[in-house]
Amino acid sequence: MLTIDSDIYHSDQILALLQSNAHSLKFRQTRLSKAQKVMNQGDEIGEVLFIIQGTISLSRTSESGHRYQLGSFKHNGFLGLMELFSGKPCFYSVIADSDCQAYILDGKAFHNLVCHTPELAAHTFKHLTSKWYLSVERMTRNILHSITYCVADDLLNYANQTPNQAYVINKSLECERLGTSLRVYNRILKQLELRSAIKVHRKQIEILDTDALKQVLSEEADK
Q1: What mean pLDDT do residues 18-44 have?
Q2: DSSP three-state, residue 134
């Protein structure tokens, strides 16, 4: 399954500023258990979470029940910022994919502190816009490119981030994230395997040739 391995959202500066205002923020540490529902789509946000260790997954479900699985993320920093500052209900459902360590802080107090602390505001909105950019970038890629392109792109990105490690898959979740069927997904994996780009095992994919994956991207880019 796709995991963003680099901790691009964590900020020691943010954490230090939060800890220095622990009393007013009702700042406290908590532990999330694996498979625990952290946030529910449609819920109102009263408290903000700051994840410092562990892996979470995000998904959104349509009225008809179709689910879009955005992916898994390690150390995803803040959860609930978009909802807090927009006044909108929770956009994604969030589940802990592993045991996680996190901090909880009062949403209204944090909103007030950000409005009166330029340094915290700068770090917070860099964090918020970075997450928004990544979400839009991934969804736009899935719209603009073929499923084959997206599968190869995920594998190539994973190989670049975690060299010599197998790509662990849950095929059902991969299909949700890519907006495709299991039949189409298996067919694409078979095609990549025939090109000696990958070797498919029962629960993981061994990435054999990144140049072959780059060639697939080049071929699929114009489709």
Answers
A1: 94
A2: helix
